[in-house]
Amino acid sequence: MLIVQKKGCSSNFSHLLLDIFYSALKIDGLKRTKIGSSTLSLGVKGIDINPREGVIKISDTAHIPYQLHLLERIKDYLEEVFIRFTNGIKGKLGFSYNRIEWEIRF
Questions:
Q1: Mean pLDDT of each 10-residue bin along the chain, 106 residues long
Q2: What one-character-per-residue DSSP string does 14-66 give?
Q3: Is 28 a member of any domain?
Q4: Exposure check for the chain: N or C terminus, fewer CB within 10 A?
Q5: pTM above 0.85?
Q6: Which domain range does residue 15 map to?
Q7: What are φ and ψ of residue 24, in 5° steps?
Q8: Per-residue pLDDT, 33
Q9: Is-contact 80 69, C-beta < 8 A?
Q10: If DSSP codes are grouped into helix, strand and coil, which group holds residue 104?
Q11: Confidence (pLDDT) at 34
């Protein structure tokens, strides 16, 4: 089950992406956000950030239905946090992110 502490996540969107998709920390208390044990270790995954186009592309592969379920929950949550993130940085320091593109394979 995906456990997410919503307070303060919008201020550090990049750390949230790292914690969910790439963190190898086994001790939940050391992670920057309280995402529980939902760190994904699926098949081929990638995050491509194109600041010129303002697009973040996330791709991943689910091998069993539960992994697909986790990815859908994470997608919903990241979309919500992304809206708060873009509202907070819109135009500041030249940042202008406008969408996340998802490629989830099963």
A1: 41 74 61 53 70 89 88 90 83 79 91
A2: HHHHHHHHT---S-GGGSSS--TT-----SS-EEEEETTTTEEEEEEE-SSHH
A3: yes
A4: N
A5: no
A6: 9-105
A7: -105, 10
A8: 55
A9: no
A10: strand
A11: 53
Residue in this structure with the two tokens 């992110």, named with its chain if needed = 97
Q: Is residue 88 part of a domain?
A: yes
Tell me the C-alpha distance between 53 and 40, whole Å: 27
Residue 84 phi, psi dihedral angles, 5° rounding? -65, -35
Gap between the Cα atoms of 85 and 24, Å rounded: 24
Name every residue whose Cβ is closer than 8 Å to that of residue 65 and which is 6 or more positions away in sequence: none
In a domain, 1, yes or no: no
**Does residue 3 lie in a domain region?**
no
Q: How far is CA 58 from the centre of its chain?
A: 8
Residues 6+ apart with CB under 8 A from 8: 33
